[in-house]
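Here is one chain, start to finish.
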Amino acid sequence: MKKHLLLCVEIEETAARIYRQLATSNKLPRQLKVILKSLADDEDDHASQLRFALRFSTGSDFTLKSSDLAPTQALLDRAKALLEKTIQLDFDVKQVIEAGTELEQDFCSIHIENSLEFKDESLKKMFAALAQDDKIHNQKLFDAKTKFL
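Its structure:
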């Protein structure tokens, strides 16, 4: 279980780095850069919340629904590959929005809420809030697509 959460922390931190890197593109309007920086801050906050859960949980507060870490590791690998791509290329508006949307959809599909069963109600609420944030991120990216494309 700890390995899974550590992978999730790394995914969130990688996502923050991706959004910050995307925000450096010279091809983007200032308003989109602000959105990307906000998403990066949210991802950093998610990583902090996951670290908090790791530090203060008893280990019996939640259990993995599946012992297969491969999907979570695959998402981390895809996120790292995307980070490398964002470092090498100067993404345009369309590429930024597509990359962000793909990232957030992947988060939703492998999100902690989908992979853990909670016994502690306060932890369950915290992780539900993280899942809701990912949905909000998707909406922000959809709104950006409407506005900038």
